[in-house]
Structure formats: structure tokens, C-alpha cells
């Protein structure tokens, strides 16, 4: 099964508990179900419009746009719910970090800025910075879907050094 409900790296998935992985699987299955339902609804409406002889009237495009928007809203709600669950099911472990401030009430962008600043301030050598970040188990969970971009940022910086 491809997991695309949240853009986590393999390291982030490895840091999760079995219960958290099952929650992600459940959300992914729901996303897949919603996607199949969207495809079926579009196909059903297409055949209905063809039978009535009004398929080319623009009704089809408007209908598809409406369905797509509803689908995206449902997926966003599902994703937000999953990230909320993951954030607070791992909160206790992450608070034992001690390196940088761990505040889950901050937005994920604010959290990323705090973590990035910590590593850029405390590690002058780009390679050492990347290795320390890579070993940081708290960041894997704390940064959620912003972990991968920051990982790539530090990786690229270490290659240039």
C-alpha cells in the first residue's frame, strides 16, 4: 500500500508506534475509499449526462470541479485529524528532548524555524549539523510533514561543505 495521506519519510515512520502506524493505515484506507467514490461518482454522472445528451454543455466540468473540491476538503480534514492524533500521541516522549523548545501549540512552520535555528546556532560545521539532525528522534515526530524538507536542506548544506 502506498501511503500518501501524509508526506512522512521512512525515518519518521520507523519512529512511530504500532498504534500510530495502524492509525495512519486507517486514514490511508479512508482516503483510498474516498478517491474510489469520487471516480465512481464522476463516471456515473458522465453516463447520466451522455444519456440525456448534455455531456458537452459544461455541466460535466462544473460537476467534476464541485466533486473535486469536496473531495479535497474531506482529505484535508482527514489529514489534519491524523496529524493532530500523531502530534499528541507522541507529545510526552518529545517533551523529554532538552535541546530546543518543544511546544505543540505552535504551528509546524514555527516549530521548524525553532529546530532549524537550534541546529544552525549550535553546529557550525554543516556535516556535523546534518548528522546531529539525522540522529534527533524528537525532530522526526515534532516537525511532522516539515521534517523531510528540513532534512533535505541540511543534507544539501552538508554536501556543499
How would you portray this structure in words?
The protein is mostly helical. It is 75% helix and 0% strand. It contains 8 helices and no strands. Helix 2 (18-52) runs antiparallel to helix 3 (59-89) and helix 6 (126-135) packs antiparallel against helix 8. The longest helix is centred in the N-terminal third of the chain and has 35 residues, at 18-52. The protein is elongated and about 70 Å long. The relative contact order is 0.13.
Rg value? 21 Å
Number of helices: 8
User: Helix fraction?
Assistant: over 70%
- Residue-averaged pLDDT, rounded? 88
Stretches with pLDDT under 50, minimum 5 residues: none
Number of DSSP E strands: 0
End-to-end Cα distance: 38 Å
- Main sheet summary: none
Derived structural class: mainly alpha
Give the topology string: H per helix, E per strand: HHHHHHHH
Principal-axes geometry comes out as: elongated
Q: Per DSSP, what share of the residues sits in E-state strands of 2 or more residues? A: under 5%
Amino acid at each position: 500500500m502506498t501511503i500518501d495521506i501524509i508526506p512522512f519519510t521512512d525515518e519518521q515512520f520507523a519512529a512511530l508506534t504500532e498504534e500510530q502506524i495502524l492509525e495512519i493505515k486507517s486514514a490511508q484506507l479512508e482516503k483510498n475509499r474516498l478517491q474510489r467514490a469520487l471516480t465512481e461518482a464522476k463516471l456515473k454522472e458522465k453516463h447520466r449526462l451522455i444519456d440525456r445528451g448534455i455531456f458537452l454543455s459544461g455541466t460535466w466540468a462544473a460537476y467534476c470541479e464541485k466533486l473535486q473540491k469536496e473531495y479535497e476538503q474531506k482529505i484535508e480534514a482527514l489529514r489534519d485529524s491524523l496529524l493532530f492524533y500523531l502530534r499528541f500521541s507522541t507529545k510526552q516522549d518529545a517533551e523529554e528532548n532538552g535541546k530546543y523548545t518543544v511546544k505543540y501549540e505552535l504551528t509546524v512552520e514555527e516549530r521548524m524555524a525553532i529546530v532549524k535555528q537550534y541546529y544552525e546556532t549550535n553546529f557550525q560545521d554543516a556535516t556535523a549539523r546534518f548528522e546531529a539532525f539525522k540522529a534527533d528522534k524528537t525532530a522526526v515526530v515534532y516537525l511532522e510533514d516539515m521534517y523531510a524538507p528540513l532534512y533535505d536542506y541540511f543534507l544539501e548544506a552538508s554536501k556543499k561543505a
